[in-house]
Design a protein that fits this description.
The structure is a homodimer.
Chain A (H helix, E strand, L loop, with lengths): L29 H10 L4 E5 L8 H11 L5 E5 L11 H6 L2 E5 L10 E4 L8 H7 L7 E2 L7 E2 L2 E6 L7 H10 L3 E3 L27 E5 L4 H9 L4 E6 L4 E4 L3 H14 L5 E6 L7 H10 L3 E6 L4 H5 L5 E4 L3 H7 L7 E2 L1 H7 L18
Parallel strand pairs in A: 1-2, 1-3, 3-4, 7-8, 7-9, 9-10, 12-13, 12-14, 14-15
Antiparallel strand pairs in A: 5-6, 10-11
Helix pairs in contact in A: 7-11
């Protein structure tokens, strides 16, 4: 598409890689896309980027167009995208080759090429710092020459998954007994967590080391595993913290309390391919004559303002409820919180809403 | 669903009708919906309202639920909706009976019940006032006893379509020769205009009387038929005006001029069922190596801010371009305006972007 003045356009990573803030660079795996276009004799290629990377889309499209036949139509998804659960199904149907960037596969399909875009940040300096927060190896009282390897769970996000084996070895070399597991079918890799699924931290260790950026992933992790100490080693922002669920719980309980007087409930069913929980939505409707089912893809404050409900329960993406909840004009609860608000479950049953399965 | 304290809930129109500002009330045609649910042995009913009526949805759902079997699941579309071109295709697929309120059919289908929601506002007082702006019947110089019936075109919107025949007769009784026609297949009724289609005003008369609310419909009408005087009789706001395209044209030319220096063009293809013009989008891509195809359903400033383009050309709903254009961070043009900006067409070819056909 765009003919830029330099020989290589911004998204071109074939030789030099692309520098961003925090020294992140990504491999867009252009050859893999090129091969798929040729193999399938594709006439249309659809590209989908998550929000933070959308602005790179046109440059990546340029690079792909340089590699493939000029007759092939390259299309960019302009839909919001917040995960591998959030495929642009319209563009997917319209494309012979559909490339989803920035997430690991939630469900494999012949049509979809997932390009994970692994981070190139070195995780070990910040892991070194995080050791101060972990129980250190100790001597065995019975045999002082034999150290006791403390148990630690290790998890990370898709972005850093390419270094996961190295991370595990690095911890083992320092005397830790490292526990890892693959979560459920929603997760591609051993040790991987999503913003809505922490099943891979369900290991036999009282402490879990989370290597990754962001504050919401480890918060969900700590909420989902309240009996464990969650140490956060964030290699992007170069900081070590402990997950603290107190403020989060206060916010959630405040929403539940506000919703306790609600008469009319809006029950949101999300139509995004990987964010629908139909059975949960139906169960609430069957149980509550004052509940109204509302279907939508993007769940936004603007869209809900149209409905004169007293409270909402969101069966879609849990992160919208917990992270964006205060932006809605009425209390927005998870399905579990709804059960508390209407009196079906006790207050202390409040837990983090996680999402399992694919579609 | 909600059991309200009064016998009849807010949306119940079976006997009394519902009063709103401007004295508008609507017939939701509940019996027709009830019959369809029974005939089709439906398990799911989907309801879609345009933006201005969404807040009525839950009450209408209540009324429908009182009429049908309790096992039937009633669902409300939470997607934005701006016309019969904008069916919630997800909800439609998921519903045994799908009811689209507030617009006349763009395309009939066995599954869809269109409930037009005709206005009950009396159009004749404001039509009486509008006569001052129309050429009045005159005497024939050759035969002073014989008046000359002046030609006038008559158009209105779906909302007032139920009074169209009366309007025509009313004008004829006052000595006018009334010209009406059905537009193209995008339009259901004779004399009907849409915000994107004014083909029904293509009649043999120098003056057209538009009966209806809003300022954008008659503006599009005047732009599409620049050789005609367009008199606006607005029975909702009770005002008569003449459509004035000057300011509108200034705004459009300003956008075109701003876009003339653009190198990178974002070409928007709208994925809404009745708003896609694929051939137009493809033609631009083929003609311009610096054009990038972006697909989306809702075309909003937020979504486009993700793309570092110099200008956009919108092949979707023309009203987004003309009515919301200034809200976008870069110039947003219609396909015709794009041709001017890139030098393929002369400046004076600027015209209103209309939309034809269905899907």
């Amino acid at each position: 598409m765009s003919q830029q003045s330099s020989d290589r356009s911004e998204g071109d990573l074939r030789n030099t890689g692309m520098s961003l803030k925090h020294d992140r660079e990504w491999d867009y795996e252009l050859e893999r896309i090129e091969e798929a276009v040729e193999e399938r004799d594709a006439e249309t290629v659809g590209l989908q980027f998550p929000e933070g990377l959308k602005r790179r889309g046109p440059a990546v499209a340029d690079d792909i167009r340089e590699l493939i036949d000029a007759d092939v139509t390259v299309m960019l998804s302009g839909q919001p995208c917040y995960g591998a659960c959030d495929l642009d199904t319209f563009l997917m149907k319209r494309s012979d080759v559909f490339v989803h960037f920035g997430h690991s596969p939630m469900k494999e399909s012949e049509k979809i090429i997932y390009v994970p875009l692994f981070s190139n940040v070195d995780p070990f300096p910040i892991m070194e710092e995080s050791l101060e927060e972990l129980s250190a190896p100790t001597e065995d009282a019975a045999d002082p020459d034999e150290p006791v390897d403390p148990d630690v769970g290790l998890v990370t996000t898709a972005q850093h998954m390419n270094r996961f084996d190295e991370m595990r070895e690095w911890l083992e070399e320092r005397g830790y007994s490292v526990h890892v597991r693959r979560g459920d079918e929603r997760l591609t890799h051993e040790g991987q967590v999503l913003g809505c699924n922490y099943a891979s931290a369900d290991v036999d260790a009282d402490q879990v080391l989370y290597v990754g950026g962001g504050k919401f992933h480890p918060l969900g992790l700590a909420m989902e595993h309240p009996e464990k100490t969650v140490v956060i080693a964030d290699p992007v922002n170069n900081v070590v913290t402990l997950a603290d669920t107190e403020q989060f719980l206060k916010q959630r309980y405040a929403s539940v309390h506000k919703a306790m007087d609600a008469e009319k409930w809006g029950v949101i069913y999300c139509t995004k391919i990987g964010q629908g929980r139909w059975e949960q939505a139906e169960a609430i409707l069957e149980d509550n004559d004052d509940a109204y089912l509302i279907t939508m893809d993007e769940v936004t404050p603007d869209r809900l303002r149209n409905f004169a409900m007293d409270a909402f329960v969101n069966t879609g993406c849990p992160r919208i409820t917990t992270d964006d909840g205060p932006q809605f004009h009425k209390p927005m609860l998870t399905p579990g919180e709804y059960e508390i608000a209407v009196g079906n479950e006790p207050l202390d049953s409040l837990s983090f809403d996680t999402f399992h399965g694919t579609w």
